[in-house]
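Run Alpha-glucosidase through structure prediction, thanks.
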Amino acid sequence: MTDPEIRPADDWWRSAVVYQVYPRSFADATGDGTGDVNGIRARLPYLAELGVDAIWISPWYPSPLLDGGYDVADYRDINPEFGTLADADALIAEAHALGLRILIDLVPNHCSWEHPWFKAALAAGKGSDERDLFWFRDSKDGGPPTNWPAAFGGGAWQQIEDGQWYLHLFDISQPDWNWDNPKVIEEFDAILRFWFDRGVDGFRIDVADSMAKDPALPDVPLHNGEPTREKYVGNPFYDQPGVHTIHQRWRSIADEYADTPQGPRVFVAEAWLSPAERLAQYVRPNELHSAFNFDALRAAWDAKELREVIDHTTDNLWAVGAPATWVLSNHDTIRHRTRFGRDKRDALEGAGVVPTDLALGLRRARAAALLELSLPGGAYIYQGDELGLPEVEDLPEDVLDDPTWERSGHTVRGRDGCRVPIPWSGSEPPYGFGPGTGQPWLPQPADWSGLTAEAEAGDPDSHLSLYKAALRIRRDHPALGEGRLVWDADTPDGILSFTREPGFRCVVNISDTPVTLPPHQRVLLASEPLADGVLPVDTTVWLEV
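Sure, done. The structure for Alpha-glucosidase is below.
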């Protein structure tokens, strides 16, 4: 538990910089090629030196890993491939001793088909109490109960031997929980308390908008002859009103811990909802604490679009008293160095679809990092983004692990390209990912020697050094973190320029030409070298005013 004398303020989460760890790909302590809990423990000093406030760990539970751990077989234990509960307890204690908070993933929409309750439901038969824990239904007109699509491809219903179908909004191996059943509600209450009592500081809630379903099971509209995947208002399985009752219940549980020496426990929602008015409903004072801002993640490298996203996000979240959060990449999306190296119309396309200029992408990634870290609220860094890692777009087909690859009939490569293990040191794979020369579960590129943490730590101009400098300034400067911004008037097209009190200005050049900076303002940090008071294209500067 954190020493109360060094514990951050009770609203630490409103301005925290959180580092996402994807356990399989972060660090391997055993040499088996898979990242693990003790690998994370060994790298805690690196994260403390980087300057983040908290760590979010993607699912570490027992799982067949058919969806990278988001298919949970036991919510109260650690995957044996990753370690033990004792290892997790040690990680939490060691992180707290370094002043780092720990958030873990909660996966409440679905579990694994290896979960004991789902196995019991399959065995118990139609009409049983066990089946009512999930969404089992009979056929409609000889087919599935609805036309709902699954996120990873195909339909969202799977038929079993006795003729009934079970709902899986994601992969066939991930049956959806029935949140209308009180036993499911009580089970997740107990899961929250289990981990809160072990010292975790909060949860990132996977697909926080999906637990409640319309019991009438209406079909979704067709788009080009296929069931729509749009999260339209009134969608029967996304953003249903019932999710807010669940979140309010969870908030009351977190609030039970507010007066402990460790301080409050918190939630951050993953809800791919747009516009921000819809997302704001999830972070009202009696619900979740914060939510990922996916409008910002999907925004093009375009000054007008970025300003609109910033304004719309902050206006709507501030209206309900919630902080904004900013994110550039995560384990489900194309790394932003690659995204920013593409034409903005094609930035979110999959691997190998469009050409990418990685040098341009790196320059823009540096500028975007300073923009993100200067905005009001909190920020998230996906592991390896501080190194400037690109998406790995040429993974061999025989190593692809994401269920999207199979469910799409080998037409969509999926998310493995952003999950390639981190390079730590050395000149060739496995780059210090684990002891010895054993190769990690996904192959690393042969040209990553200049992107290792070791190589970048010794280079004052590296991507890693930029992040360290920015996080140090952010922590020390009274204008940064939670607060407000004011846009500067009369800025040229393609320029983002705002001030934050006291005494801070951020200027981003997304135009086609260099621009002259305001005179008599001291440079705190710039994403690229400056000369003669001129801000180059695709460059961000922090100024003291």
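The chain has three domains: 17-111+181-469, 116-167, 484-544.
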